[in-house]
Amino acid sequence: MKLFIKLEHIIDTETGCADRKNAPYSSCNTAKSSNIPPFTSPIFISMKIKNPIIPGFYPDPSICRVGKEYFLVNSSFEYFPGVPLFHSYDLVNWRQGPALEQHPWPSVPLKDDFDVHELSCIWNFRKNHASTDWSLMEREGWLVLHGSQLPLNDYYSPTFIARRQQHHKCAVSTLIDFTPSRDNKEAGLTAYMNERHHYAIYITNKNGSRMVSVRRRVGDMLLTAAEVPVEFEGPVVLGIGSDDNSYTFSFGKNGPDRQIASGEARFLSTEIATGFTGVYFGMYATGNGSTCSAPASFDWFEYTPLF
Predict the structure, then answer these.
(1) How does pLDDT run across 235-289, given as a tens digit for each residue?
(2) What are the CA-CA distances from residue 237 to residues 162, 188, 251, 281 (Å)?
(3) Which residues lie across from 113 on neighbouring strands?
(4) Same domain, yes or no: 162 and 299
(5) Quick one: 91 and 232 in the same domain?
(6) 29 located within any domain
């Protein structure tokens, strides 16, 4: 991919304006821009430009202006330099400078006890979530989810908080306190690629009994792989294990020691599910068509790499 010059939409960091061809900087009505020449000045009109200005493979360019200097970064798809940095005074002649310094992300604990009133940076939502769907203050030391009408199969934003799967071989578990009073309400753990490709182990109510169920969603196929009654009162530990070939689903009172189902890992792969974000492990709650009156409380979530 070659980089071609187009004198439009260059962001001036001093004025916050997007400078356009044939529009002088003074149109931004700022004092700082009054001494900066517009793109219509002779320096640009008389300049002979030979495209591409940076030949080679330089995708996803982003340019900003600082005073009379321009800086450009792009994707390299290489470990080093991850983000090459270029410098220019005229948008035509570019010189590659030193790579941006690496700032490794600080390590985060493998176990989140939800003891603070702010989510860790490892947690993600799906699309534009509703702030009323979750709380870290409603029950001290717990993450509380309120199931909306949207199920995991929905394209939009169900009640869902998740972190990325970072290892082929790993295990996740959580302690959940959830007692639905009506059928078809559920909350639990999911291995999630997208709304059409995911697995879930969850607590639900069926004919007045609390159950642990496992569901597989693969494209148009939707299958309940297991349904097991919960024979004890109180919170339940749910767990998902992962290796190169499969995911396993377990539960128990003091730990996820009873495996009840499994699913092939390839159905959550990019080759089958498409996309490029990878798999997420997440906690979720849903009323499957209507809001869920019973909150789902999660005491902790643990992610364990298995080497």
Answers:
(1) 999 999 999 999 999 999 999 999 999 999 999 999 999 988 899 999 999 999 9
(2) 17, 10, 5, 15
(3) none
(4) yes
(5) no
(6) yes
